[in-house]
Amino acid sequence: MDPENPYAAPLIPAGELPVDAAARPLTLLGALNTGTALYVRRFPTVAAVTLTVWAPLEVLISYLEYFVLDPEDIMGALRLSLMADGLVGIISTGAVISVGEAELRGEQRGWLAGLGDGLRAWPRLFGTRLVSGIALVLAALLFILPAIYFTVRFSLAETTAVIERKVGMNAISRSMELTRGRFLTFLGLCLCTITPILVLGGVTELPLVFYPMIDHWLLSAALTCMLDMATPWILLVFVAAYMHCLAEERREQAVAQGTSDSPTQVVIDIGRDH
After folding, report:
1. Which residue ranges make up each domain of the chain?
2. What is the distance between the alpha carbons of residues 38 and 33, in angstroms, rounded to a whole number?
3. Each residue's pLDDT tens digit in the chain (274 positions)?
4. Which of these, 239, 229, 234, lies nearest to 102 by C-alpha position?
5. What region does 167 belong to: left with phi over 0, alpha with psi -120 to 50, or beta?
């Protein structure tokens, strides 16, 4: 704890998660390793944030699916989940991004502070997700390949909405800027993060498939919460990728200006301008 400011967030102990990890050039393995280290180190905080937002939502969604919606109405259940995520779930999205970004700057943000950041980021995240969703639907109407391309290029939009306080097209433009020349790397990140979560989602459904006698709406909610606690890993991997890209951008600017900040200083300074 800083003796001059007893309310300052404590710095990360040396050797546990190096601050300069995100100052290295972006690579597929580098982003995955840094994001995974973030997830493991801050799992209690991430789990607290996720369950605070999603546990009540999953209980409500499961109740409605079992007792209100038509069991055959799969699209109705999907719309309900998407609505819950788009209106409330993005609070935990913003919180996890904030916690991960603070960690890579050498700070620690608690789950309550993270939730506060998530609440403040809600309008930006909602606007950004709405605009990007419309753009992706329009791209999908043209052909599947443009939709895949723009999905990858938009992959840092929500991260920039939280960290750089951008919204809508500004966040999307910033994501396009940061991912320029890195399409294959971010395509790999999308595949390497989404695929395990999809597999895990299928695994969480197996108990109810093979043992229908234990099928219960509360058990269904609990199993879905387990999946919810895994999905922040994706967010933290892309936070790590964002910090890698931003550090590279700052180094290029420093070279152009004739300065020579250390990699660690570059990362620590990230966020102070936002």
Report:
1. 22-264
2. 9
3. 334 344 333 333 333 444 555 667 788 999 999 999 999 999 999 999 999 999 999 999 999 989 988 877 788 888 899 899 999 999 999 999 999 999 998 888 999 999 999 999 999 999 999 999 999 988 888 788 888 999 999 999 999 999 999 999 999 999 999 999 999 999 999 999 999 999 999 898 888 888 888 888 999 999 999 999 999 999 999 999 999 998 888 888 877 777 655 554 555 454 444 4
4. 239
5. beta
Q: 268: closest CA among 20, 27, 83?
A: 20
Longest dimension (CA), the chain: 69
CA pseudo-torsion sign 107, 111, 117, 118: positive
